[in-house]
Design brief:
With about 250 residues, this protein is α+β, with helices and mostly antiparallel strands. It has two domains: about 1-100, Winged helix-like DNA-binding domain superfamily/Winged helix DNA-binding domain (Arc Repressor Mutant, subunit A); about 125-254, no CATH class. About 40% of the residues lie in helices and about 20% in strands. The protein is built from ten helices and ten strands. Helix 8 (about 205-210) links the parallel strand 7 (about 195-200) and strand 8. The longest helix is centred in the middle third of the chain and has 23 residues, at about 100-125. The radius of gyration is 19 Å and the shape is globular.
């Protein structure tokens, strides 16, 4: 079959999984994207991957960004054309609001990239069973009656000592207002669709600030440091909103 000049034929085995990963990551660096595709079994050859990604950028399905805070490496997001293609293939998606403030946009990029690193640590250790991204959670919350109390950053199912466990994941890179946390806590009191929630934060001060807002939530909630996640994963220490310390995340997941 001949295709019009300037058009491309997208493959179900390589192009569509690549577009889906970019969509679900929201923003992702070049090296992160290759590792995600490699570890998920879609791509092995770096040269072929580079060619495929450049092809999607050139034809307008993927947007490339140079963010000063990310460094020299480019970051990628899905374009309107890429979204249209995926929606036609059955992808569940609700557009995320785009901040007008450049600083807020930059923070969104950093949050997404650091969340990718959180997932990659799990993949490298061979512990991930299922990762449901925020885009999929938001779609379920908007379009179905059986959603969640919050648009979590991810729903994560991990392998634990021969079994599995699921938790909602929130990565809190910077603090929100007191009013925001009070509203989130009220919403989480109605949560019935997840078993437990894990908040990861970059430092101890932010952990102490965030955790105290959730003391009235009946759902099991735990808080830990992102650096400890990367170093120890399920063996990282965590605390409850009331300050109760657990020697490891594994302990509360069993």
């Amino acid at each position: 079959m001949r295709y019009a000049k300037g058009s491309i034929a997208l493959t179900q085995t390589h192009d569509y999984p690549l577009l889906r990963q970019i969509l679900r990551s929201q923003f992702v660096t070049h090296s992160q994207l290759f590792e995600l595709m490699r570890r998920c079994g879609y791509e092995r050859n770096r040269r072929v991957f580079d060619w495929r990604l450049l092809r999607l950028v050139t034809h307008g399905f993927v947007a490339r960004h140079q963010a000063p805070s990310v460094g020299a490496e480019p970051a990628y997001s899905i374009s309107a054309s890429g979204i249209a293609i995926l929606q036609g293939s059955g992808e569940c998606f609700v557009p995320l609001p785009t901040p007008r403030n450049p600083r807020h946009r930059e923070l969104n990029v950093l949050h997404a990239i650091e969340l990718n690193n959180i997932r990659l640590s799990l993949l490298r250790a061979g512990l991930e069973i299922l990762w449901v991204a925020e885009t999929e959670i938001r779609s379920r919350n908007e379009h179905t009656p059986s959603g969640f109390a919050k648009d979590y950053d991810a729903l994560v199912t991990v392998a634990v000592d021969g079994g599995s466990a699921r938790f909602a994941l929130e990565y809190e890179r910077t603090s929100k207002s007191r009013t925001d946390y009070e509203k989130i806590a009220q919403n989480l009191m109605r949560e019935r669709a997840v078993e437990r929630i894990l908040y990861l934060v970059p430092n101890q001060d932010l952990l102490s600030f965030v955790a105290r807002f959730f003391q009235g939530v009946g759902l099991p909630m735990f808080f830990g440091l992102a650096p400890a996640w990367h170093e120890r994963l399920l063996d990282m220490p965590i605390i409850s909103p009331h300050g109760e310390r657990h020697s490891s995340l594994r302990q509360v997941l069993q």
